[in-house]
Amino acid sequence: MPDSQILPSVREMWAQIAASPVVFPDDGISIVTSPRSRMCPPGWVGLVLLAGAGIGTAPDDATADAVRTALADCPPERLRDPSEAAKVLPAGEMLGPVTLAYLASDSFRPSSGPAVEQLPADHPDLKALENQCSPEERHEASIGELTSPVFAIREGRDIIAAAGYVAWLRATAHMAILTAPRARGQGLAKVTASSAVAHAVAARMLPQWRARVPASQQVARALGFAELGVQIRLKIA
Q1: What predicted TM-score, i.e. pTM, was given to this entire model?
Q2: Which of 84, 86, 79, 98 is nearest to 40 (CA)?
Q3: Can the peptide bond before residue 41 be classed as cis, meaning omega within 30 degrees of 0?
Q4: pLDDT tens digits for 81-93?
Q5: Distance from C-alpha of 207 to C-alpha of 110, rounded to nearest angstrom
Q6: Which parts of the chain sit beneath pLDDT 70?
Q7: How crowded is residue 209: how many other Cβ atoms within 10 Å of its Cβ?
Q8: Residue 180 and residue 175: Cα distance in Å, rounded?
Q9: Which of 119, 180, 188, 235 can bridge 161 by disulfide, Cβ–Cβ 3.0-4.6 Å?
Q10: Which domains does the chain have, with CATH numbers?
Q11: From its phi and psi, is residue 43 left (phi > 0), alpha (psi between -120 and 50) or beta?
């Protein structure tokens, strides 16, 4: 399935997450007031830019107007660069931009390696893996929110890498991957993620990969994911 066929479904999914009537324009960024938006934490602004156009939500009308003013003459692609986004957006705090990548089933490139064990999402050994990682890494990985099985690699009795996904709207599988600091750089994220992606594809879901760091982005590309855009969340100063 080419990107042009994935894109409409992805855009519809994000429009639903916005929790207020909004559509991606032909170009530019459409901002709406939506205090119940799930694109960002409560009270924040959420932006999603996909293929040259974007939507955004703000918690109130005044904030929405401020963001519209800031973005009035800004091409959406400019916001893909973190330094440029920081110049344009009136943020006191900003998360992102993080890349949003999606995988068509016929683009999947599986990866093999050490034995992968399938576990229930609430397996107690996962907590030890999370405890080895920073709060930011745990939050980004979302391992504790999985709705799929966990696909894990062990070293002895310890889980050193794990992956799975969270079921989102429109049969989207939001991928979650976490590797112990001591085991990074060995390709384990790609192996566990490959098993999780295969499970999602078999369930006829659309895998989504949200990545902030280059290493994670590289793993996604290696598995066949295509980057369609970015997500930004900001708290107005």
Answers
A1: 0.91
A2: 98
A3: no
A4: 888 888 898 888 9
A5: 13
A6: 1-4
A7: 27
A8: 17
A9: 188
A10: 3-98+230-236 (no CATH), 105-229 (3.40.630.30)
A11: left
